[in-house]
Fold:
Amino acid sequence: MSDDPYRALGLTPSATAEDIKKAYRKLVRTSHPDLHPDDPAAEARFKAISAAHDLLKDPETRAKFDAGEIDASGQQKPERRYYRDFADAPGGNAYQQQRGFESGVDPEDFFAEILRRRGRTGGRQQGFGDPFGDSNFSAPGQDLRYSLEVPFLDAARGARTRITLPDGSGLEVTIPPGLSDGQTLRLRGKGAPGFGGGPVGDALITVAVRGHPVFRRDGNDIHIDLPITIDEAVLGSKIAVPTIAGNVNVTIPKGSNTGRSLRLRGRGVKPAKGEPGDQIVALRVEMPSVIDPALAAFMEEWRKTNTYDPRQGLFEVVPE
Amino acid sequence: MIAKYTEVEVLAAVPRLTAVRLSTFVDMQIVVPMRDGNRPVFGAIDVARMELLCDLAEQFELEEDGLGIIMSLIDQLHAVRQDFHALAAAVSSEPAETRRRIAANFRQGRSADED
Structure:
């Protein structure tokens, strides 16, 4: 921040407490990141004016600053996450109203959908409509929010499940394939009833995807670590590998090393639209748990005539 | 995993938030907790939203009704922005000829609105 908190607020040291409050309010209005989501510089400005205000709003710290006992840096506030970051999340957020393009809407129709919305009268949000401008006051029902934990494979492959509502009734939820953690599903007309003939609200379900002991997900790609035996690594092999849609036979090339990745095209998550992801198999050579005498004897023989140094590169870059 | 906060945890996460204020926000449906069984739980988005609500409530001495209107407008703004960005992305992936035609129609639509 600037060294002079007065200047940061556009004031001089002769400012009254009322001046400080007024100046701060005005700057919050022009610089609060949540009120200016498209202004990337807002956060830095807001931080500077907040720090200046924190210092000057308290007569005691202000007097100390004026006397030169403390400097303008004051105390640092912890990092804050702004609402705009959440409000902008891909996949939407539960507070959003009038979302235009949802997965259920035919893309052909979505311009028509915008025009249709524009033609509609009355507010969507219950309580904030304009009861005076409309003699037949009606308001849509409240949107109800739920959280739902979804098993990894259900989220990857798509599934149907039920959530139990507080009143004991159930609600059928269709999980689209490729659902990601933190995404919000909107079930139209599954919220609270409307008022005065207004439409029923929606159910908004925020999803948490559970982890999986074998699979990991990165977007539509599925990652898996695959242990192989030393003979499979040396000689190559064809082995069964689990994918989210069942086992697939995979050829392990001769001489495969730990860390080598095989890409199984199209074996990842298959979203309703868009390209399916891949499964990436990371190989890991695993020694047998017991080294039998025959293997040890073979290795003794082998190393007499074969030598390679996998550590050569290490000593070239590390100084002694 | 998404972070989940109980009422107690949310009060700890947002020091300026009081239990009274929280229950007012929930009653007004300015903040809508999720249901985990019968227990209300809050997400990280709710925490950020309540920070903003505290900014507005404290700095502008806004009452609940005023806060509700402002949050409703902010939410609408975000929805429109997101639609707008999605639309802009869709248009920008069209061929130049189509983009020119859309731009021309867009300008025409705007000036017609001003009449």
